[in-house]
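Hi, here's the filled form for the chain we discussed.

Project: internal
Contact: R.S.
Residues: 179
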Amino acid sequence: CWMKPYDAPWVTDFDYIRSYQEGGLEGLDAYGTYSAVLGTWEYGVEDFVHTEFAGDVETVVEPLAGTAEFSYQGHFRHPQMTYVMFDLDPDAKKLVEGRRWLEGTERAFLLGNALGEDVWIDVRKASKGKSLAYIGKQSQNFFDAKDLFRILQWGTKYADHLVLEVSEPYVVEDEPTID
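And the returned structure, exactly as it came back:
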């Protein structure tokens, strides 16, 4: 299961099946599986940097960046930007820092909780110029309303632009019924 990341000059191995075949569920690499299966995105850096909304952005901020797909894919077309990513998990930091980035891309991966102000202060310090914070729907869909409010509070205070991707709403009546 080989896949070339969008605009990457090299091929990346996203094979998570082999590790499952060899070690069962215990053998799966959680982040590798996420990247191969769930790590898809509807929007990329490209969708924002050429708009009136965020055309002046110099720094991309990715909170809850377990695999940092948004930043990683974005840097191929925009290596001149600064990328600041953060997550609670030190394994996520090792994974993202171990990826093949284009030479010269300025980036930082911070360890911190998106619900706390301290990491957002550090994000602001690491940013250059105006910043765009992007939180994908797969990253935030387990938070309750109070947690989302805190993320919005800190994100809007310490980033110049904040995008919180949400799942497309639908009316409950639109769901098929099961008899």
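Let me know if anything looks off before we file it.
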